[in-house]
Amino acid sequence: MSEPQPTGFSILNPFNHQPTPIPPVWLMRQAGRYLPEYRELRAKAGSFLDLCYSPEFATEVTLQPIRRFGFDAAILFSDILVVPHALGQHLEFVEGEGPRLDPLKSLDDIKALTPDKVEEKFRHVYEAVSSIRSALPEETALIGFCGAPWTVATYMVGGRGSVDQAVTRLFAYQNPQAFKQLIDLLVTTSVDYLLGQVKAGVNLLQIFDSWAGNLSDDEFLKWSIDPTRRIVREIKSQHPNLPIIGFPRGSGPGYETYLKATNVDGISCDTSLPLSYMRDHLSPLGTVQGNLDPLLLVTGGEALDRRVDEILETMSGKPFIFNLGHGIVPQTPPEHVARLVDRIRAAG
Amino acid sequence: MSEPQPTGFSILNPFNHQPTPIPPVWLMRQAGRYLPEYRELRAKAGSFLDLCYSPEFATEVTLQPIRRFGFDAAILFSDILVVPHALGQHLEFVEGEGPRLDPLKSLDDIKALTPDKVEEKFRHVYEAVSSIRSALPEETALIGFCGAPWTVATYMVGGRGSVDQAVTRLFAYQNPQAFKQLIDLLVTTSVDYLLGQVKAGVNLLQIFDSWAGNLSDDEFLKWSIDPTRRIVREIKSQHPNLPIIGFPRGSGPGYETYLKATNVDGISCDTSLPLSYMRDHLSPLGTVQGNLDPLLLVTGGEALDRRVDEILETMSGKPFIFNLGHGIVPQTPPEHVARLVDRIRAAG
pLDDT by residue (tens digit) across B41-83? Predict the structure, then answer.
C-alpha cells in the first residue's frame, strides 16, 4: 500500500507515506457539548439515541467543528452503542450518567439478539453518512467508525460503563464459549456496519477499543486483537486501500502487538503512551495518531503550547495525525481548540 | 546489593539474587472481606478508619491470611489515606462507595495542612507494626507501605477515587506551583511515615501509585517518578539493604522508565502488563512481582491453573514474587486462594 492515492484528503498522506510537514489534525469528540452551537441544537432535540438516527441532526453537528476550525477530517456523529441497539438490546442514555442497557446474562440472552434486523437501524446511519459526505468541503475526509467487539461487549454484558469492566471480564472467564458467540456476532455485525458506512461515503475508518486496557495479555489477544484482525481482514478484502485506524486505549506495551497483529494502518494513542514509545515502537509499523491530554485543551495558554510543540517535534518526519489521547471534555473553551489548530498549522 | 542477606525471609531471596525455584507469594488485599473471619471481626468493630489505628484489630486481621494460607509475607493492615488524615484533612469511608475527603481547592487549603501533627496518628500505626511483627511467624516477612504522593494527592484534591483523576490532573496543570508544594509535603511526610514503619519492624516496603496510569509521559516524570525517586533516596540513605517495591499501576511502557529512574528494587505489575514485557524489559532491571488477574481467583478451576502455570513458566529463573495485578475482590472464594498457593508451591 505504498502507492500514493489520487485524492485531495490530506489526512490520507501519512498512510501513503507522503511527507506531511504540517500533520493533519482532527480531535475525538470534536462535535459535542463544548460547542455552543451544538448545545443550542441539542437543547431543541429529542433523546440522544434519536439524534444518532437523525441524518439532519447528525449532518449539522458533524459539520459544526469543520466550519469553525477547518479540521482535516470530520467524524460521523453517532455512538458505538448503535450496534447493540440495532441487535435489539434495550438502550437508553441517562443524562449525566451515560448509557444503560439491559445486561446480557446468559447464552440465551445472546441468542435472543436480532442480527437479521440490524439493517433497519443502520440505514439511518448510512443516510447520515451520505448527507454528511455531500455537505462536507471536498478536501475534508469523513471518518466512519464502530466500537471494537470487546468494548461493545463490555456494555452489553456489564449494562453500563465501568472502571474495570469486571462484570464482563468475569463473564468471559466463566462462560468463554457463550462470550465467544457474542464476540463473533459483533465481528459479523461490525463488518456489515462498516462496509455500509464505506458504501455510503466514508473515506477512512476508526475502530474504538476504549476498554481494552484492563485485559491480561492472553485475554487481550483473544478478545481485542483477534476480533479486530478479523474485521480488518474482511474490510480490506473489499477495500484494500481504505485506511483503518485502531484505538486499543490503555493497552500499554500491548499497542505494539496490536498494531502488528491486527493489520490496521494506523494507531490512535492514549494520553499515557510515552512520545518516545510512539516514535520508536509504533511509528515504524504504521501511522501514529495522538495523543494530547484533553485536559490541556481546558488549561490552554503556554502549558498547551509547550506540549503541542513537544508532540510535533517528537513526531516530526513520521507518518502522523495530530489528535487527543481521548475525547474533548465539555468544559473545553472553543478558543483553546482554535489556538491548538493555529499552532499546528503554523509549525509547518 | 548482590550479597546474600543473613535472613530467613524467602521473599527477600529474589532481591538478593538467590535462586527461587518456588517463588515467594503474597497477595494484595490478602487481609480483607473475602475472608469470613475478617467479616466477623469487622461486623463487631467501629469505622474503617478507627480500625486502621487499632493495633489489636490490625494485628489480628493481618495475621488471618497468614494462618490460613502461609503466605511468605504479611502486609500491614492500613490504608494509604492515613497520610492525608494525619495531615488534618477530613476523611471518612462511605460503606459501598469508598473514601470521601474535603477536597483541597487552593494553595491556602494546602498551607492549612498540619505536618507537625502527623506523628500523633502515625504512632498508632507504628504500634500496630510492632505488635504484628511480634505475632508473626519468624519466617514471614512484614511489608510496610504508603501511597505514592501522586496517588494520595488525587484523593486529597479530587476528594474521592475516580476513573480518570481529571480534577487533580487539571489542578496540576492550572496550579503547578501549588501542586508541587502538596507533592513536596507528601514526599517528606511519606519518608517519615515509612522510616517510622521500618523502625517499628517492617522488613520491606511497597509504594502504591495506583492512579499513575492516566498521566502523560512528562507529567508522569514530574508527579510520579520524581517524588518516588526522592522517597526511595531518603529511605535508602538510612536503610540501604531494605527492599522497596514500586507499583505504578497502569503506566504501560512507563514501567521501564519508572524502574530505571526511581531506584526501587522491585516492581509490582498490573494485570494488563504482558508477561513477555515483564520478563524481557523489567526483569533485567529488578525483582518483578505480579500479575494474576484477581478475577481468575473468583473463577477458579482450570482457567486459574492454566494462567498460574503460564506466569510461573514465563518468570521461571527470574527474580520473581508471585502476586495479583490488583487487590483480591470481596467475592473471591477462599478455597481458590488455597488452590493458588498449593499450585505455586507444587511447581517447585
Answer: 998 888 888 888 999 999 999 999 999 999 999 999 999 999 9
Q: Which residues contact B336 (CB under 8 A, 6 or more apart)?
A: B297, B298, B299, B300, B304
Where in the sequence is the domain holding A336, given as residue range(s)?
Answer: 10-347
- Cα dist from B224 to A94, B107, B147, B236, B273, whole Å: 35, 20, 11, 18, 18
Largest CA distance in chain A: 57
pLDDT tens sequence across A58-111: 999 999 999 999 999 999 999 999 999 999 999 999 888 899 999 999 999 999
In-domain check, residue B3: no
Q: A276 with B217: CB under 8 angstroms? A: yes
- What would the mean pLDDT of B93-113 be, rounded to a whole number? 95
Instruction: Please give the distance of CA A339 from its chain centroid, rounded to a whole number.
Output: 24
Angstrom distances, CA of residue A180 to CA of A172, A183, A337: 8, 5, 41
- Cross-chain Cβ contact A295/B166 below 8 Å: yes
* pLDDT tens readout for residues B203-213: 999 999 999 99
| C-alpha dist (Å) from residue B211 to A149, B82, B237 | 27, 17, 27
Q: Give the nearest partner residue to B295 out of A169, A273, A307, using CB atoms.
A: A169
What is the distance between the alpha carbons of residues A41 and A30, in angstroms, rounded to a whole number? 15
Supply the residues of B annotated as catalytic. 29, 33, 42, 79, 155
The answer to whether position B4 is within a domain reads no
* Burial label, A53 (beta-carbon count in 10 A; 0-12, 13-18, 19+): buried
Residue type, B81: L
B79 in a structural domain: yes
Domain membership of residue A98 (yes or no) is yes
Q: How far apart are CA B44 and CA B58, in angstroms?
A: 14
**CATH number of the domain bearing residue B149:** 3.20.20.210
Q: Round to whole Å and give the CA distance between B223 and B293.
A: 27
State the total domains in chain A. Answer: 1
List the beta bridge partners of residue B148: none
pLDDT of residue A5: 38
CB contact under 8 A, A252 and B252: yes
How many angstroms separate the CA atoms of A179 and B134, rounded? 49
CB-nearest to A213 from B254, B272, B325 is B272
- Within chain B, residue ranges assigned H as helices are 36-44, 48-52, 55-69, 82-86, 107-111, 118-135, 149-158, 166-174, 176-200, 217-219, 226-238, 254-262, 275-277, 294-299, 301-315, 334-347
Q: 10 Å Cβ neighbour count for B126? A: 20
ipTM: 0.94
Distance CA(A158)–CA(A212), nearest Å, equals 14
Beta carbons of A174 and B271 less than 8 Å apart: no
Query: Closest Cα partner for A254 from A305, A206, A214?
Result: A214
What pLDDT band is residue A17 in, cutting at 50, 70 and 90? confident
Q: 3-state DSSP call for residue B95?
A: coil
Q: What are phi and psi of A52, to 5 degrees?
A: -65, -25
